[in-house]
Write a structure and sequence with these properties.
The chain is of the alpha+beta class. It contains 2 helices and 4 strands. The chain has a two-stranded antiparallel sheet with strand order 1-2. It has a two-stranded parallel ribbon with strand order 3-4. It is globular and about 35 Å long.
């Protein structure tokens, strides 16, 4: 389904789909997204979040982490 929307991704076993890059995340948010109220389980022993966050919020944070070249930020993208 992701390829139908030209979203680059790969399958990471056992049960994950990985999509990286601001453009791919923006396409996913616009074309597919997550339903309201869908949360990750923060109580899992291997949870990196340690709280039950809504997946839409995590996606927004991931997109916001990409900053234009020359600014302070986690990731740098060229301004287009």
């Amino acid at each position: 389904m992701l390829s139908d929307f030209n979203i680059e991704s790969r399958i990471q076993l056992p049960n994950e789909i990985v999509s990286v890059g601001k453009e791919n995340l923006l396409k996913f948010e616009k074309e597919i997204g997550f339903s309201p109220g869908v949360r990750i389980n923060g109580k899992r022993s291997n949870s990196i979040w340690k709280q039950s966050l809504e997946k839409r919020e995590i996606l927004r944070r991931a997109i916001a982490s990409y900053k234009p070249v020359g600014s302070n930020g986690v990731h740098r993208t060229s301004q287009t």
